[in-house]
């Protein structure tokens, strides 16, 4: 079965990102067995049809190699009892399996006198590597009628205010999120639309954001709208993921889950575009074209914060994004998308930037990094955080179980 | 050279859409020669690198098979003389060639002490079938300082108010448009961003809209967010294009050009999704899944407005979209995209729908169709027109010439 497996497909199966792991095709079977990320059953059909597995130890859309598009939906929950909410996730489970399998959520030879079960706009498209990631926000646990307050993880609370935040309530918070990622934007949209439609009156859209990734045909880290590679230092091995992303075993209903942080970061492209390459690179702490740390040659060369030039001056400036982020000494999984949503009507500037999404076993990692960036980060001059939310993403779903089961069966 | 040409690639070269023309690969050379749409020089490299030709009798992005993404930009012109505007198009010509060739607009080994010439976010991506279409709006001719008033075609005027229009000024009008279409959204965005950036103070963004198309891997007409195929009756042969799209020879600077009409049409998905399949089909006048006219089996079966069922009742309802549109007896080239831009904050409904774009040799064709739809079209219940603009698109550019030359050299 290894005959047709490309590097990207293998990475998809093993849940590894582009960096750091080289495995020959012949070694694939063993690797697949050794890992638990959205893997089994592994078969050629799965690969051929651009499908991501729904079932697994962890949810899809996290270790899954990043797709071209995201439709991120933050929802308000209207369910009035815990059982109603539980039923919603039970309902969404088989629907998610079908969607990620590239199928309609219901029989298409439906009774013409009722609305079609599936809205149908993906007919003719394949699964397009759709992944679906579900999470719950802090506000869900404050809904007394749901009786979930005692199950709120201590890590799950609204993010603190960071210097330079200029948040717009229209892109903040949410009781529940669905992150739908796919290589076709209509597939991602269709998934959210149909899940919400079937939830009839149990949820409302609070905010949504689309995003895209410029994936080079030959693989490699995509560039954001500042033209810098985004995601270079991501975890890549299963050990990295265990250390950085997955909540440790045995602690709570969140075991094998993770925390999702989403930030809608406007990039001031006009200002950026008036900045010299040298200053752009000094703001990031990396070279633009290669992605290498300043003074080095290759994207994956190690970032050495003590490296100096011949005048004994730090190569990576102390106020650069990379310097400050690394100084926090915390790791997160970045899984970001660019967005371009028209113009800001007041100024005529591009309403464009980064839909930053990160996954981490403890939100403190993100908070520490963000606090380290603080007021110092030279990149601050070019960006403004406009939206923010945090969600606790359930562990993966085993066959016969349903999304979020551990939350509902914990007393 | 025909050995590796797929149907899609052939269609791209011949400027034909999916319907209507079947040519064996062996017949390709002759067809290519017989047509003038963005063709020459035709070579394997052009195909291999996902490139659309810039030069040709007509501009790209019109007869070009529709791409996955659009970044549509409507601009305000700040140039204060005709020569300044002319210089802008002269500047944009070689830049457009480079962009459509998948190249940076300038040398990337630039002086690090100045801003990079190219913003760089497409490094690592190929041309992604980028097409660029330039047009000028009626308001451009009203700028006295430009002295173009006498060159305004009588066909180029703001569209009349149509029943059910609820236009938002934030998505209307413009002195100039750039329609950037590509199979990668970052490539489309990059093109507009760099053209505008180089136009330093000569243009301002007025409004922009992104859109996408759900292109089936095996070809065929894409579905809109109502799940109906969009573009079935499009012109497909060169004769069709001459009859429908291209302004006739010898009449004016618009010879071989065309008129672009863009409408931002919100689709009320929530209402639609509560409608029975039968009523959805009755609103369109077609079957959803096959795309066939009601009562027929295949998408491209002819629409017969007189066909009746066994009770002598019209198969295609008189108030259906297809019935009314066909009744106008006018043809246009539809080249639409879906959009999904978050939610309408006041209602929480999807801000999603159709970025309708059509090309026609005379805007009256669109106006007649729209007037025929009028208040009767049953689809009106599910859609609202929110944005509108019209642009006169120049003819194509010959080597050694520049975009819009005919406009500037006509006395």
From TrEMBL, chains A, B:
Coiled coil (residue ranges): none
Q: Which UniProt keywords apply?
A: Heme, Iron, Lyase, Metal-binding, Oxidoreductase, Peroxidase, Signal
For activity, the cofactor(s) needed are: heme b
Q: Under which EC number(s) is this enzyme classified?
A: 1.11.1.-
Q: Which domain of life is it from?
A: Bacteria
Chain ranges of the Dyp-type peroxidase N-terminal domain? 59-213
Is Coiled coil found in the keyword set?
no
Q: Which GO terms describe its molecular function?
A: ferrochelatase activity; heme binding; metal ion binding; peroxidase activity
Reported function: Involved in the recovery of exogenous heme iron. Extracts iron from heme while preserving the protoporphyrin ring intact.
Q: What is this protein called?
A: Deferrochelatase
């Amino acid at each position: 079965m290894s005959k047709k497996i490309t590097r990207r497909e293998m990475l998809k199966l093993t849940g590894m990102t582009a960096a750091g792991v080289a495995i020959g095709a012949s070694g694939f079977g063993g690797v697949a067995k050794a890992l638990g990320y959205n893997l089994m059953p592994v078969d050629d059909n799965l690969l051929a049809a651009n499908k991501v597995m729904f079932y697994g130890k962890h949810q899809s859309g996290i270790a899954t190699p990043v797709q071209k598009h995201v439709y991120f939906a933050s929802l308000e929950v209207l369910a009035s009892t815990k059982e109603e909410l539980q039923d919603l996730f039970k309902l969404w489970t088989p629907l998610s399996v079908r969607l990620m399998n590239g199928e309609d959520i219901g029989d298409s030879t439906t009774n013409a006198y009722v609305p079609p079960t599936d809205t149908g706009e993906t007919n003719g498209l394949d699964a397009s590597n759709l992944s679906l990631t579900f999470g719950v926000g802090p506000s869900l646990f404050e809904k007394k009628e749901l009786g979930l307050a005692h199950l709120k993880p201590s890590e799950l609370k609204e993010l603190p205010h960071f210097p330079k935040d200029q948040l717009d309530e229209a892109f903040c918070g949410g009781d529940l999120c669905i992150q739908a990622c796919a290589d076709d934007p209509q597939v991602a949209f269709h998934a959210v639309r149909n899940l919400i439609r079937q939830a009839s009156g149990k949820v409302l859209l609070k905010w949504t954001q689309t995003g895209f990734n410029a994936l080079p045909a030959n693989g490699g880290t995509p560039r954001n709208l500042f033209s810098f590679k985004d995601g270079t230092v991501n975890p890549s091995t299963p050990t990295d993921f265990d250390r950085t992303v997955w909540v440790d075993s045995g602690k709570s209903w969140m075991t094998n889950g993770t925390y999702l942080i989403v930030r809608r970061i406007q990039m001031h492209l006009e200002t950026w575009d008036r900045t010299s390459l040298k200053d752009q690179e000094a703001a990031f702490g990396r070279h633009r074209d290669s992605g290498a740390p300043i003074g080095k040659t290759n994207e994956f060369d190690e970032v050495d914060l003590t490296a100096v030039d011949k005048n004994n001056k730090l190569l990576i400036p102390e106020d650069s994004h990379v310097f400050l982020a690394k100084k926090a000494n915390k790791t997160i999984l970045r899984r970001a998308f660019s967005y371009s949503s028209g113009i800001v009507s007041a100024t005529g500037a591009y309403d464009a930037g980064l839909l930053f999404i990160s996954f981490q076993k403890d939100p403190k990692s993100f908070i520490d990094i963000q606090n380290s960036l603080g007021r110092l980060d030279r990149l601050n001059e070019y960006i403004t955080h406009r939206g923010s939310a945090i969600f606790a993403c359930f562990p993966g779903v085993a066959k016969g179980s349903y999304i979020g089961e551990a939350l509902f069966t914990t007393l």
